[in-house]
Amino acid sequence: MKNVFQEIMTKNFPEIEKKKPTQIQDARRVPSKMNPRRQMPKHIIIKLANNNDKVRILKAARERQKVTYKGTPIRLATDFSTETYKARREWDEIYKVMQRKGLNPRILYPARLSIKIEGKIRSFTDKKKTEGIYLHQTSNARNAKGSTVKINRK
């Protein structure tokens, strides 16, 4: 597995490998048992020794947009911890409402909500502040469009 990752890095991101080679702590395939009758993606989970390496690789993959292995396009993605996953899930309700209203929200790592307000990108870690901004933005939109917006508060 480590050799596959090193090959992907040298072919797709030679500039990263030249500056500072990535140190792999652990590499394995998931699922461990493959069913020959079913077509399944062959996921490889790589644990890097340095978190900054992961950030650099994912940033380079986003910029490059097309990462390949032996000519086949592949996707590099981050694997979140359980705590990060739960923190990101807490934004779901606000995210969905904002998305329906066309505010184009984004969830950034580890668990921040980002939206574009009046041409400026703002990010929030506190849901209460985000709701206040959201209500302000939708009241401006309501005044302009004549529609109303409802948020369920818990």
How would you characterize this protein structure?
- The chain has helices at residues 2-12, 14-19, 51-64, 82-89, 92-100, 127-145, and strands at residues 24-30, 43-48, 67-69, 72-74, 106-108, 112-117, 120-124.
- Helix content is 44%, strand content 21%.
- By secondary structure, it is α+β, with helices and mostly antiparallel strands.
- The chain has two domains: 2-74, Alpha-Beta Plaits, CATH 3.30.70.1820; 82-145, 2-Layer Sandwich (Rec A Protein, domain 2), CATH 3.30.250.20.
- The radius of gyration is 20 Å and the shape is globular.
- The strands form three sheets. Strands 5-6-7 form a three-stranded antiparallel beta sheet, with helices on one face.
- This is L1 transposable element RRM domain-containing protein.
Structural class from helices and strands? alpha+beta
CATH class of the largest domain: Alpha Beta
Major sheet size, sense and barrel closure: 3 strands, antiparallel
CATH superfamily of the largest domain: L1 transposable element, RRM domain
Question: What series of H and E elements makes up the topology?
Answer: HHEEHEEHHEEEH
When the domains are counted, the total is 2
The percent range for strand residues is: 15-25%
Oligomer: single chain
CATH architecture of the largest domain: 2-Layer Sandwich
Spans of at least 5 consecutive residues with low confidence = 141-154
User: What is the spatial order of strands in the main beta sheet?
Assistant: 5-6-7
pLDDT averaged over residues = 76
Rg, Å, rounded: 20 Å
How many helices? Answer: 6
Described by the principal axes of the CA atoms, the overall outline is globular
Measured between the Cα atoms of the first and last residue, the distance is 46 Å
Number of strands: 7
Domain L1 transposable element dsRBD-like: 83-128
Protein name: L1 transposable element RRM domain-containing protein
Domain L1 transposable element RRM: 2-79
Family: Belongs to the transposase 22 family.
